[in-house]
Backbone:
RNA sequence: GCCGCAGUAGCUCAGUGGUAGAGCGCACCCUUGGUAAGGGUGAGGUCGGGAGUUCAAUCCUCCCCUGCGGCACCA
């Protein structure tokens, strides 16, 4: 007898082992039809798995929160199945579920083309229609390895050989195709449905290690319904429209060119955003007790050896010979014998030098030392990505030198600053994580215990919920991660906060404590915006280019309807400019429709239209970006209103 | 750096083994028009760079560069 307890608490008894299908059928025909898996005492299991002991069983249908993951997992198998049927000799490796879908990595000499993707997709749909049933077998480890080697699946054989001892070797069959898998799977291919689409092919290293062969990864997306699939594809379209590289070009903000790979040419409008942000964050830092410094770009390699960067970070540094290049015709430009300098990849070691000038007392601490430091990092070519991954970047960087007992307070203070700034930026959806000690680390565990606790205390005292990111800290100390969610639900990391016990030691920074003894300060590396480059990229995508008035490079365009209003337009523009607004005039010989369209495309937040009527009455017809109507206002009132709205949030708060 | 794809006018893109086209943009002319494209004319390209095949290459082949999508990297 097997007693099965259902979620409603009722108990059903069966003569012997029962499968999920049996149980579902005993409840209702329709449930049996909808069933795709079950939970036995809470563990997700195949529907066709016999239950031989008393247990609580929950039948899982497509309405279950975990159904989508099951469907995506099966879709990955479906993909592998279709590929092996169409391209015999292709080896399968792994095929996990990822955000929005799945992928499968294949070993095949010939590359897959986009035409192949279409063929594969068609074959996948056919296999769904064929409704191939799933079944599971448990094999002996050695037998499984022999089998997969024999059929030429060497990667699978390797995976099996590496499975932990004692783990069941489960083989899943979908019709006559089989694969090693931990499961669980849907009862048949029909249940996958057809709300899937193959998205792209890409290279990926076997086991993620660049020393291993490169496999071909096919990415797919899969959903529970066609409607969900369509919505997802629409989201992708939306994201593409927000791409900061595209908007940067369309709005004339910046450009890149091959001669300066990974470095930005900021155009006047793009740099205006930078200037506004920099002025804003500088004010925020000033009021929060920071001092600002400027340190050298180019420092001798000896210095980087001391800081530890030469051994740990050199492959990411730009190294420059300290010599005057030869101008002699035919001679090599550089002798190759000169001493080496390097462009700074970080500001921290230079800040320690300023700290070390003179003797510091415990009374001087904390010192919050800020720099809008321009750093260079020699990122791999393949990793560069618009403004988000560059080789020359400027951070709103600062280092807080403090005593250990000040860590919690300084962290709280930073968290408050961080929240203020992101709220002002319209980015208030932030998730906090505390990244703890990694396996490879410097320092004693007792110090790590204190450091992690100090950060956790600060988060808690600030009333913030947070998760731990175990083992994700830097080798020199734990850190806080700030995960922002943007307007279309994507997450970003920009700011950072890291505790460092190592660098003050390496560079011999010290202060004198109450007893007259020399002590090491703790260093907090922190950036609120992160880099201006990345942060501006983030803002552009978050706002889809429609920046709030205070950040918009051009805030108002005064556009004329007829040339009779030119003089008045200039007068109006001058008045708006006097209110501190960034204003342009459009006096061109074009129709007002054309002008409105063009400035709307340029995402100018406000268009002040003036014709003969407005000129007579000293008014403007104000049209806001995205609005379908306009409002006729007295010029002075319009200037006052726009001036107020364009005031950076911190200054507005100060006035109030 | 690795795998794949791509590179034609400022932008978006078409096209062909016989040295190139559209729309938008730009310039000029006409038009002074009331809230998302008024009309006309014109300028603009070493078809990413180099080599090869060919009578002839933007097109075919090879190498390089750059971009894009991933991977790896990311103090």
Residues:
């Amino acid at each position: 007898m097997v007693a099965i307890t259902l979620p409603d608490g009722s108990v059903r008894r069966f003569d012997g082992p029962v499968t999920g299908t049996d149980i579902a059928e005993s409840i209702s025909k329709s449930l049996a039809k909808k069933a795709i898996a079950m939970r036995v005492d809470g563990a997700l299991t195949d529907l066709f798995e016999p239950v031989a002991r008393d247990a609580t069983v929950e039948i899982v249908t497509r309405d279950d929160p975990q159904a989508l993951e099951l469907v995506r997992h099966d879709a990955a198998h479906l993909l592998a199945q279709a590929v092996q049927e169409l391209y015999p000799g292709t080896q399968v490796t792994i095929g996990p579920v990822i955000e929005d879908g799945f992928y499968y990595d294949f070993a095949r000499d010939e590359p897959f083309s986009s035409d192949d993707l279409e063929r594969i997709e068609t074959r996948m749909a056919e296999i769904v229609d064929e409704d191939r049933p799933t079944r599971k077998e448990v094999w002996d480890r050695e037998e499984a390895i022999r089998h997969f080697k024999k059929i030429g699946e060497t990667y699978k054989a390797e995976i099996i050989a590496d499975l932990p001892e004692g783990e069941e070797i489960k083989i899943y069959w979908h019709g006559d195709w089989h694969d090693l898998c931990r499961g669980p799977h849907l009862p048949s291919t029909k249940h996958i449905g057809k709300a899937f689409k193959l998205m792209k092919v890409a290279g990926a290293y076997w086991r993620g290690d660049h020393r291993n062969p490169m496999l071909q990864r096919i990415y797919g997306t899969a959903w529970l319904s066609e409607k969900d699939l369509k919505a997802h594809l629409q989201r992708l379209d939306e994201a593409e429209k927000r791409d900061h590289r595209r908007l940067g070009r369309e709005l004339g903000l910046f450009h890149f060119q091959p001669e300066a790979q990974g470095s930005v040419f900021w155009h006047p409008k793009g740099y205006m955003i930078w200037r506004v942000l920099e002025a804003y964050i500088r004010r925020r830092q000033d009021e929060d007790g920071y001092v600002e410094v400027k340190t050298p770009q180019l420092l001798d390699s000896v210095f980087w050896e001391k800081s530890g960067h030469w051994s740990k970070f050199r492959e990411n540094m730009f190294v420059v010979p300290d010599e005057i290049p030869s101008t002699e015709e035919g001679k090599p430009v550089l002798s190759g014998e000169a001493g080496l300098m390097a462009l700074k990849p970080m500001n921290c070691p230079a800040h320690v030098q300023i700290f070390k000038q003179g003797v510091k007392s415990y009374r001087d601490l904390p010192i919050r030392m800020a720099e809008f430091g321009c750093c260079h990092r020699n990122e791999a070519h393949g990793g560069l990505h618009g403004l988000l991954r560059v080789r020359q970047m400027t951070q709103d960087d600062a280092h807080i030198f403090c005593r250990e007992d000040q860590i919690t307070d300084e962290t709280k203070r930073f968290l408050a600053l961080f929240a203020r700034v992101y709220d002002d930026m319209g980015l208030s959806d932030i998730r906090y994580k505390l990244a703890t000690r990694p396996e490879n680390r410097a320092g004693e565990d007792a110090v790590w215990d204190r450091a992690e606790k100090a950060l956790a205390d600060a988060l808690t005292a600030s009333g913030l919920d947070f998760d731990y990111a175990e083992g994700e800290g830097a080798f020199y100390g734990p850190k806080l991660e700030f995960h922002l969610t943007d307007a279309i639900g994507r997450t970003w990391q920009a700011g950072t906060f890291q505790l460092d016990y190592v660098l003050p030691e390496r560079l011999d920074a010290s202060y004198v404590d109450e007893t007259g003894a020399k002590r090491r300060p703790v260093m907090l590396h922190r950036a609120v915006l992160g880099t201006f480059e990345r942060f501006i990229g983030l803002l552009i995508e978050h706002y889809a280019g429609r920046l709030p008035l205070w950040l918009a490079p051009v805030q108002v365009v005064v556009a004329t309807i007829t040339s009779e209003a030119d003089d008045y337009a200039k007068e109006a523009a001058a008045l708006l400019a006097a209110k501190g607004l960034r204003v342009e005039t459009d006096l061109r010989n074009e129709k007002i429709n054309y002008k409105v369209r063009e400035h709307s495309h340029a995402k100018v937040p406000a268009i002040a239209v003036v014709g003969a009527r407005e000129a007579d009455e000293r008014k403007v017809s104000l049209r806001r970006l995205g609005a379908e109507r306009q409002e006729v206002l007295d010029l002075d009132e319009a200037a006052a209103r726009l001036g107020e709205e364009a005031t950076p949030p911190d200054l507005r708060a100060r006035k109030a």
About this structure: Chain A has a mean pLDDT of 92. The longest strand of chain A covers residues 392-402. The longest helix of chain A spans residues 67-86. The CA atoms of residues 384 and 390 of chain A lie 6 Å apart.
